[in-house]
Amino acid sequence: MPSQANKEYKADDVRSLIVPPIGDEACCPHAQEVENCTLEWGDHYALFPEQKHRQRAERARYDWLASRCYPLAAKEFLQIASDYFLWFFLAADFFIDRVETLSD
Question: Which Gene3D superfamilies does the entry link to (predicted)?
Fold first, then answer.
């Protein structure tokens, strides 16, 4: 059986969503490339009411969360996952948790 360590799955390859690798391969190499695009996506859709919300998102590093969740994902899929995490956690903070203020 060929090693999966060097295999990059396409966005529609379900196997990459079921059994992620463990160890050195447990982080997708595209995370750094995705980070700025996720923040720009949030800016484009005005997801940050104030600068402090954007700074909090920068510190959260949703790109690395997506990279750990989907270590074998293609860059395009990782971008979608990172953008979704940004939206999800912002929505949770604003609408579900009813957070009024942010702590630094």
Answer: Farnesyl Diphosphate Synthase
3-state secondary structure of 96: helix
* pLDDT tens digit at each of 104 positions of the chain: 444 555 555 555 555 555 555 665 678 888 888 888 999 999 999 999 889 889 999 999 999 899 888 888 889 999 999 999 999 998 887 777 665 555 55
Q: Is residue 10 part of a domain?
A: no
Q: In terms of residue numbers, what domain contains 34?
A: 27-95
**CA nearest 78: which of 88, 90, 68, 87?**
68
DSSP 24-69: TTSS-TTHHHHHHHHHHHHHHTT--SSHHHHHHHHHHTHHHHHHHH
Residue from 66, 59, 51, 62 nearest 89 by CA: 62
Are the beta carbons of 21 and 72 closer than 8 angstroms? yes
User: By C-alpha distance, which of 78, 82, 28, 29 is closest to 57?
Assistant: 82
